[in-house]
Design brief:
single chain; alpha/beta; about 45% helix; about 15% strand; globular
Length: about 140
């Protein structure tokens, strides 16, 4: 088994999926997590490729968020779509990034992702509040490559 499959236990994956669902109850934003073994690119550049590959740019309000992790390389990035970028202030993602990285440094990968996802839902609530007729436009599953 590669480290991608070993990165999170099945129970931790379920906890992260529950965190995504919980965060999306605060916002119309769509959150996904993608894990892969390695990348030879800068994490933000690779996150952009994955973002488009997963068709995360197809949301109505352009408010998708990707948490990207290259497991072996210990690279991490958060990427928000154009709708988010135009609505939020500079450095919007800094506190989320710091939350995740602080937990990653302690080896608490699932906890870092969960906290970052939940913080994202709360932060996006101001810009993209949850609507009663909100449609879940993207799967809440964790994607792997």
């Amino acid at each position: 088994m590669s480290k991608v499959e070993d990165f999170l236990t099945s129970a931790q994956e379920q906890e992260i999926i529950e965190a995504i669902r919980s965060a999306e109850q605060n916002t119309s934003g769509e959150i996904r997590v993608h894990l892969e073994k390695t990348t030879d690119k800068e994490p933000l550049e690779r996150a952009k490729e994955v973002f488009y590959y997963l068709k995360m740019d197809a949301t109505k309000q352009q408010n998708g968020v990707l948490f990207y992790v290259a497991v072996d390389d210990k690279k991490f990035s958060i990427l928000g779509d154009k709708g988010i970028d135009t609505a939020v202030p500079n450095h919007f993602w800094d506190s989320v990034r710091d939350t995740v990285i602080n937990q990653f440094k302690k080896g608490n990968y699932a906890q870092g992702l969960k906290q970052g996802i939940l913080e994202t839902g709360l932060k996006l609530k101001h810009y993209f509040p949850y609507q009663e007729n909100d449609k879940n436009e993207l799967p809440d599953s964790i994607s792997l490559s």
